[in-house]
Amino acid sequence: MMPGSDTAVETLGLRKAYRSVRGRVVGIEGLDLRVPVGGIHALLGLPGSGRTTTLRLLTGLAHADGGAIKIFGTPVPDGLPDLAGRIGAVVGEPGFQAGLSGRRNLTLLASAAGVPRTRVDEVLARVLLTDRATTAYRTYSADEGRRLALAAALLCDPDLLVVDEPSAGLDAVGTREIREALRRLADQGKTVLLATGVLTEAQQIADTVTVLDGGRVLAQGVVADLLGDAEVSVRVRLDEPGKAATALRAAGFKVRADGDALYVDGVAEPSDVSRALAKQKLFVSELVPQREDLAAVVGRLRPVTPPTPKVPTRAEERAARKATERQAAERRKAADQRKTAKEAAAKQAAADAERAERAAEKQAAADEKAAAKQAAADEKGAKQASGSTTDTATTDTAKTGAAKTGAAKTGAAKTGAAKTGAAKTGAAKTGAAKTGAAKTGTPKPQRTEGTR
């Protein structure tokens, strides 16, 4: 821990939470911060880490839920009136009048703070806005507006300058100018506390750093020890690597070749490499800085701790029990559905098998019947063929027999006729005899052979 006389800002167990539609949101939790006097100290962290919330608590723009703050040994927020002339802040949007010039806006602020007007031109010169001092604020670019806000924070010649996101919304030129302005102030003995989410910004201009994560301090100390050097290696690809290597070495870069790529080591700004090549009319097809990003730094510094088991409340226990019962009921229902589906499938399979068996039996019976019918037809055909031959022979025999029978009948007829004629003749004779006998009165004669 740093001695109190060497500490510009100190916090102990600082806490702040916000209410939102999703419930209570923790801004910072148990923050212990140490900012040394002099130089630039960066509050570095990913979005939501608590950087801006910390600055708002330090400058009295928000009130802490707990913990303690001291600035130059004076408790805050109670002692802020005593620190009014020692703290300058650029937090949030400045309240400048759009129709007034930059100088006029600063003059009004100086009058309200009891600062001599001569101070206005001094701070404008510090932030390199003298040539734009008489121009209306509405015509200022983003970086000019940011520098004017910085000039307003310097009116009272503060010992501590608090700046939130100094390069946010600025182009490359504006970013470089604001960083150079902050660096000059630190070199003049001021203490600059800035919050940033840009790793290279902290590496390039900060002397010390506090890395925040989830409203807590992950690590704090010297930038070189925690973050490493801001210089990086840049991988470059282009059509003429040999000519490019010569041009970069002439510009003072350290160049090494690896296949069709060039690696430029010790580069503070990768854009310097492309700029040096463009001057020689050499244009890159690939320029890749190779360095650790902020997320990797936070991940590296974040301690690996086992999760602390949370004791559930009664409501959470009831909800969990109901959820378990609901899941069990859903599992039982699903099991019943699977069982029912399985049984239905088994019944369907049995029914299908039974239908198939009946169909097979029916088909077999039909086949057997057809075979029997065919056999009967074949047998009938054979009989018919055999009967035809027999009938022919029978017919011939019958015809012969009939002829013989006819001849016999004819002979019999003739014989009968002869017999009939003889009988008739005998009868006639008999009659004649009877007639004669009667006439003569003679007795009847005896039967003769002729009558028989």
Automatic annotation (TrEMBL):
It comes from the Bacteria. Residues 302-452 are annotated as: Disordered. Keywords: ATP-binding, Nucleotide-binding, Transport. InterPro entries: AAA+_ATPase, ABC_transporter-like_ATP-bd, P-loop_NTPase. The keyword DNA damage does not apply. Residues 383-442 have a biased composition (Low complexity). Residues 313-345, 352-382 have a biased composition (Basic and acidic residues). Residues 9-239 form the ABC transporter domain. Belongs to the ABC transporter superfamily. This is ABC-type multidrug transport system ATPase subunit. The lineage of its organism: Bacteria, Bacillati, Actinomycetota, Actinomycetes, Micrococcales.
